[in-house]
Amino acid sequence: MKKIDLNQGWSFQKPGGAPSTVDLPHTWYRDDDQYRGAAVYEKSVDAPDAPYLVLEIGAADHTVTAYANGVELGTHKGGYSRVRFEIPRSCVREGKIDLKLLVDNSAVEDVSPLAGDFTVFGGLTRGVSLLCGGENHFDWCWHGTDGVLIRASVDENGDGILNLEPHTAAARDAAIRYTLLDPEGREAARFAGPADVPVTRTVPSPRLWDGRRDPALYTLRAELVAGGQIADVTELKTGFRSTRLTPDEGFFLNGKRLRLNGVAVHQDFAGVYSAVTKREIDRNFELIEEIGANAIRLSHYQHPPYTYDECDRRGYVVWAEIPMLKMTESPALLENAKLQLTELILQNIHRPSVCFWGVQNEIGMFRDAPPIHEAVRQLVHVCRTLDPGRAVTCANLNTVKSRSRLNHLTEMVGYNVYFGWYYGKMGDYGAFLDNMHRDLPETALGISEYGVDCNLQFHSETPLVKDYSEEFQALWHETVYPIIDEKPYLWGSFIWNMFDFSSSRRDEGGQKYINAKGLVTYDRETRKDAFYYYKAKWSDEPFLHVREKRFVRRYRDAMDVKVYTNLPWAALNGVTVENDGNGCIVFPDQPLAEGKNTFTVTAEHEGRHFEDSVTFEKVSAPEESYILPNSGAGETVKNWFLDEEGLDTDAYYSLNDTAQEIMDSPEAYAVLKKYVPHLCPVLERGVIPLGLEMKSILGRETPEGLNLRALNGELMKILK
User: Fold this and answer.
1) What residues contact 88, with CB distance under 8 A and at least 6 apart?
2) What domains can you pick out in the chain, each with its CATH number?
3) pLDDT for position 695
4) Listing from the earlier edge strand, what are the strands of the sheet with 250-253?
5) How many CB atoms lie within 10 A of CB 568?
6) What residues does 432 pair with on adjacent strands?
7) Contact at 8 Å (CB) between 419 and 428?
8) Which pLDDT band holds residue 649 (cuts at 50, 70, 90)?
9) What percent of the residues of the chain are helix, what percent strand, and what percent coil, each to the nearest 5?
10) CA triplet 534, 540, 545: central angle to 5 degrees?
């Protein structure tokens, strides 16, 4: 295969607009121009003198129809996977090919994602190439793969099993010569087989891909031979490793328990949005490596191939998933989900880093009912048919009850839980997790999302929920993570999120178009204090970091100087304090004089000196710029819905139940129709997510004069 880069000099035009020249990767999204619709990319290219020509589109967000000299090559629906179209030689005219790509990110009902707290950007976000080959070639158009699938595993004797599935367009007598190179580049195996015939080989005692400890990668070289000549070549990296999950001990890699200390990541980056290059991806990995994580959830769609390459090379355990965030009963939507899942799996099946296929995220928010369960079951079947060696997983939100079928379709389940932010208190994690583990004794359980928003402009001496201060985010993680970490039955957790990311619908916490739950800012320039908390918990690199450096202007006479560190002790002004085991050291009640006050914290460890300094300024009144106006900081929802008679709310209906649960009961739904008749048609049309609790829905949709206590009281007379 010869690959020609076509990324420079495309003509780009939106309807009614003037054409402009752009280079790829490219997105038309801008915060001040959130266009959802069609646009055209055009470019004339020289046609190589080759029998086999293929147009490769790294990703087109989120549908594309391709034309060559006016001839339609095909349409692809799905904005995140690689797609290839063959260009017939008849499309070549006078040695030229005029390419036209119609890209459309309109909201439609048959292409995922239908919903989600992230931006659908639009554009050609991963570049375009022209592939050239001969009459005999690997089938590069087969689901966007390079013509050979690798399923690598380890048997009970510790030997590697290599299952190879080639796909070619070649003469009947063509064959494939396979060469396997070990991590040092030495030949580990050599064998051959007919084209299009699967081959299985044993590799004695291979060096295992062992995560961050030793991400050993093998290279498979496949040579398609026809007429005694090498007609085409494919090379792929792979690795041998074994994985398993248990409900009581979590995740095992190569027979050793590995707690997943994970971060979730979206693909976009300030300034370029979804049109990221290796430069932005490398910066992501620098920061993930620094924090000490060992796992990454690549949310909520297929990410660029280079991201997976680096996960393989650097040794990160990966949760990969499709953008299934709202499932309807549309057959077309289900077929599209199957297509995106098939492409995700087949384009990445050779990768040792990918340990879990994710089939849905929070679809219970919209509906938790048998037709939806059946759709998920079919997606799980796709995973197990194509790749029986990997676990299938999903992410449910907190309102999905343990008894829900959504918790019994995959062998691994994650929960997206936000106690102490969207609902409840920080300490509620303990009882929630223990109850889930009790109710799901055969399910490997973990936390797939947890986190809170933070705007680095805001600061507080007494941080509260919804003040969006850097201090509350740090306090929240300090409080919540130890609860998660102490549960031995969890496979681990994924912080939501490693980086701030774009969400075009948001206007929250003093920032527009940003989900600010990241531990690092959108431009990757600033590590928030909570970043250093996890570095103290996870990283082996010795360090110390004084917190609250951006909280400069202080009005109290004294303050606590706080440090995140993985060192055993630190000192300030001759006073030594030991690490509390949670990565924190506090020097309480440090006096502040008028004007500037500098504190330098030091430590010695294994012959090395560590220190970090911070300067605060004593002022006469609280700094108003540190406070978000009208934030409602500290407010909690009044528990008006609690039953005064002490009935068991798990046994009876109440406004604690989801809209779906109430609608599924004719008797309970009749009560809802009696009190809020205007709301029921809205629920039936699916405008409001049915997985939300009724108390949350009514908190936004309550008409004047509605007696919520009376409504709840009637519901609580109905036994489930």
Assistant:
1) 68, 71
2) 2-134 (2.60.120.260), 148-238 (2.60.40.10), 244-541 (3.20.20.80), 553-626 (2.60.40.10), 638-720 (no CATH)
3) 82
4) 243-246, 250-253, 256-257
5) 11
6) none
7) yes
8) low
9) 20, 35, 45
10) 50
